[in-house]
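Record type: ASSEMBLY
Status: queued
Input:
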Amino acid sequence: GSQNSLIQNEKMWKLMQSYIKNDKETIQQSIVNHVEYTLAKTRFDFSIFHAYQAISHSVRDRLIEAFNDTAQYFTHHDCKRVYYLSIEFLMGRYLQNALINLELEDNYKEAVLELGYNLESVYEQEVDPALGNGGLGRLAACFLDSMATLNLPAWGYGIRYSYGIFRQLIKDGYQYEVPDYWLDNGNPWEIERLDVNYPIRFYGYVRKIHENGKEKSIWEGGELVLARAYDNPIPGYDTYNTINLRLWRSLPAREFDFNSFNQGDYFKALEEREKAEYITSVLYPNDSNYSGKELRLKQQYLLVCATIQDVIRRFKKKKRDWKELPEKIAVQLNDTHPAMAIVELLRVLIDHEGIEIEFAWELVYKSFSYTNHTILPEALEKWGIDLLGNLLPRHLEIVYIINFIFLEKVSKKFPNDHHRLSSLSIIEESNPKKIRMANLSIIGSHAVNGVAEIHSKLLTTTLFKDFYELRPKKFQNKTNGVTPRRWIRCCNVQLAQLYTEQLGGDTWVTDLTQVRCLENMVEDPDFQNNWQRIKRQNKEQLKWWVKENCQIDINIDSLFDVQVKRLHEYKRQFMNILYVIHRYLSIKKTPADQRHAKFLPRTIMFGGKAAPGYINAKRIIKLICSVADKVNTDSEIGDLMKIVYLPNYNVSNAQIIIPATELSQHISTAGLEASGTSNMKFVMNGSLIIGTMDGANVEIAEEVGKENMFIFGALVDEIEGLRNHMRNTEPSQYFPPELNEVLQKIDEGFFGAVDELRELINTIRNRNDYYLLGADFKSYLEAQKKVDECYKNKSLWTKMSIRNAIRSSKFSSDRTIQQYADEIWGVKAFQIPNPSQNAR
Ligand code: GL7
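Status: finished
Output:
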């Protein structure tokens, strides 16, 4: 407990210092209490969903104890804190993860079973909190798990969208988007902080006043809304530390504009106020694509403004000098979406705290660091100065000041280099002028990192070359990682058990390097059998999922070949389905009695959402589904081949799909997938990769060995040459004949939907094959042939699979976060004492 407790009453103090017990009876009592007193349910009106709610509330009680202790401990020790700012957190379900991290799963399983429920079925009741699009948001979620587990004094900050990423329905081969109102049935995992509200201003004007010969800026007028905090406890594994994800929700401001209420239209005035709620209502469903909408900028500013107020309030709790700021806080920007935080902190320091701009600027850039997640030009945020200046007039002024000071320094180092100045400038001299958020982020940070070696290298040689030449030491690499808690321990319980048995304990869960010790088991036939048995059981589970969700019977003995990720042309799901068509045509050309000797049965599964406005991505879905229709109903094919579109790919589906996969596809055009993170999850679960030398695939190859993967395709430095060739050559001349044949079939209407499918294939036929499907197709075919050859040899495949999994430890987010902590944030671990002596 804390010495400076506000609670004076001795009795109350004592009662609050004890901890809930975790024996079976206590757990059962706490569940039943929640049934009666939290849910107010009777014995006669009770469903498994209510069981989920009551169980979650009882777990929540335990989380909150640890959560409060952790927060107090950090405050008491006045540690340097990390603030991880992200516009997305793709958390996935909480219940199982919380139980496993609290090491209470067995206790609850038993307790719940006696009450008549199977814990696994209870897990299924939870909605997916899906406040993210894809890799970027899921990375933030994995990072929180690792920060908690590594005992770092860290908090995540994001937005509590009322609607997460849409639910995807596939009907007649088309995607339909259904709103995801995930809060419909309440959310037991959050703590609403009725007393943590910050005012947020939009629009208005800047008034200049003069005080003791100095000009002061006052931003006033416009509209005020409130940001309210919702806290989501994040438990670490094998530690009592429980950190926080604080999400902001917008609400009408408390202040009343009496004028508008006195106009007489009471209802109209109230209606206007209610519009404030709209700001945090919906997550923008674009993955790697920027849309310059004002509402999106409002979301970004709300996140930033509320967070900076919160951070400063915490910093000021103790009386201290401002110069301590960078020693007490480290703010990490997850991409440029929260980059306005740089300007906001500077604004507060100079306008509110009266600090000199030079000194304030030093405090700011020493506190901030920025992660870039893509080099795709369509993802780079650039806000028109009209839009930005209207919504945030003072911020635009400050951006100009920052830019002026910065460019002044640059021209001293590189006199008369106008080209360099204009590429480094925060302002793009276009018409209208635009604010480049990436440039702002780099200038306002002491460290900038990419998310895989190849990506970080590309940043310093292409996109941020001029910045690199200015300050080479600022640029770093932090290869992404994923949490082994969710992506092994939770989703592949049997594999986890095997590891624990073999290694004589479960410390591998926080030190994944230990699984490397299993290298000497690779040749062991018993171990191989166990490995195969686990994969088969996971395949069985996916088979049922597919049966239930897609009404398709898949062949358990076929090779499970999976590509699940957001639909994007650069990820080349298109190339995958073109190959599938080629395979289908080849089977058809083979005499029926030779087919089974020549072809291995395969189930090819696709999954992923297309951004609602991304027409070509939607056409790719249509093509996949049309081919699936044709192939799956072709009696000549039988169980030699099935094609499945897995609907509504999300975190909880991924937890079923990934452990069941034998071959996963990561086939982006070299240089375009910054890292990829599902590739890591697949490898950890013993899937082999067919992939290009792109993103983290390159480092996976280093770790597991190229001979244990199916690598193909052009290398990053061949891309430019190939693109020139593509633009100057008739496609039919250099496309391999297999590809030309496939394109012709689609063109003839063999798969129906001729008009839209023709539009799709024309994107690559008209010397417009930007993602180089034509150039990579031949080597893709060869890689696929090797896949078949390897799969024929069961024991070879098993050995390759084992090697992938046990050599994947580099890709634990624990490694990644430790590097951020040491090399960017400069923070240390603070582990709070476990109060188990008291009760636990
Ligand atoms: C992404 C990259 O595309 C992806 O390769 C990377 O793994 C991920 C996390 O670093 O970030 N960048 C991006 O804008 N999105 C991503 O998923 C949406």
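Annotation: The pocket of GL7 is lined by residues 133-136, 139, 287-288, 373-374, 379, 451, 480, 673-677, 695 (CB under 6 Å).
Annotation: The chain has 35 helices and 22 strands.
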